[in-house]
Amino acid sequence: MTSIILKIGVHNRLIHPQYRTITHRLFNNTFIFGNEVISAKQNNKPIVALESTIITHGMPYPDNFETAIKVEEIVRQRGAVPATIGIINGNIHVGLNEDQINNLAIEANGPKRAIKCSQRDICSIVAAKANGGTTVGGTVTIAHLAGIPVMATGGIGGVHRDAQDTFDISSDLIVLGRTPVAVVCAGIKAILDIPKTLEFLETLGVPVMTVGDAETFPAFYSSTTVDNIKSPAKVSGAIDAAKCINIQKNLGINSGLIFAVPIPQSHSIDPSIIDKFIQIALDELKNHGIHGKNVTPYLLKRVTELTEGKSLASNKALIENNARVAADIAVELFKISMNNNGNSGNVKLRENSGKKLNIAVIGGAVEDTVIHIEDPVVKFDGRTHRGKFLKSYGGVGRNVAAALVALGANGTRFVTAVGDDRAGKYIIESLQDAGETVEKLPNKMTARYTGIIDRNGECHLGIGEMDIFESIDANLIRNNQSIIEQTQIIILDGNPPVETMREVIDIAYNRLLPGKLNYILFLNRIKVLY
């Protein structure tokens, strides 16, 4: 079953982190969660995503390994769980262990060096069963799929200097423009064109905020840019940053956020000095004809050499500082989530106050007959096969409603149409109170499905008699409008006519009080509504 979540209006809560554990099941063919991350999800702990290109392309060995391990420990000390993201042998890991980090770090300068992995590279690296060090864009993409809303890194990519000639712009920016993950960094890498990058982020609608009291925007190795560029906005600390993330989430805005943390003053390099070294490295870059993915690793390495290691020391200091701030933000965001959802280790469909969570399920109810053929070969030539008949009740909407009733969601109501027959009567009675809104129609037959399955479980033929679904029409929705208007969640399967779906959305969008409705979930199939 596939699902689409349509967000309507202003939501009054974040998705409880506990429910994000379903991501592991959805992506278990390609995602491998580290034990610490799985435990964090199961026990409701905040998580901070960490990139792996700093290991594979950002620093020499053993600095890369030591920094990665230290950053993880800092996150733990601040009350969150680190999840270093990377790709190993085609498997996407969310939470690399120490041995895996060490292997990636050792191979960083060797023939088995991991591929620099942005969002576009994920599929090819996974398909080739190769190793990948995820960039900010790659990490943000995977973190979002894994339900992790906060990431820490050194600095983000951006518009390269002389981009008017090379058109070299990091895909980090595009990904941040469409992926709701907050990135905590020391600003834009100093080797890039910071003013143009800020302009481009504004175009993409990505909020950019400096953390702290400074009015100026940080420049990675330096606490400010050489020309003291003013920051687009600022937040005082982790609490305000978490509030911004929560508001962005509640408004349904699907862009990321950038929180720029100035490097500690003790490790800040004079921006005019670092800029001279960067310019030398850029000139050498042109002479060597280096371009594409190799530009940033070359520049970072060369600047380290030109500064006699000072820039590397600054790089370590800033990523460690960013990890502290990211962990603090993740913890504060988690507190907001807990306040909105209640702090419970078990799945509950009621709020802590005991108030019912009202859910409207709209969709199909079906009488199912499955014929299991026992003969080794199924032939449709008129012969009689040995088999067994199994009768049950289904339909996407009915199944969801029945599951909610079984879980104790007594505020559930199921809106559908059935025939005035034995199947219809059973469906209504089995759903208890949720069946009160089921319309029983005279001279109609409850939807029926028959499937023919061989001894191996393969379905050879399915026959559906679903005419009654046309009776789940806009009038039926209007007749139950008062019920729908009292719900926090509407679940709508793809069986009713398009006009019915439009009516549901119209009620949700135009008549519900702001903040009342959390989600509309579309299940089973996609239809073009407008």
Automatic annotation (TrEMBL):
GO terms for biological process: phosphate-containing compound metabolic process. One of its GO terms (cellular component) is cytoplasm. GO terms for molecular function: hydrolase activity, acting on glycosyl bonds; metal ion binding; pseudouridylate synthase activity. The keyword Hydrolase applies. Keywords: Glycosidase, Hydrolase, Lyase, Manganese, Metal-binding. SUPFAM superfamilies: Indigoidine synthase A-like (SSF110581), Ribokinase-like (SSF53613). Residues 361-510 form the Carbohydrate kinase PfkB domain. This is Carbohydrate kinase PfkB domain-containing protein. It comes from Microctonus aethiopoides. The lineage of its organism: Eukaryota, Metazoa, Ecdysozoa, Arthropoda, Hexapoda.
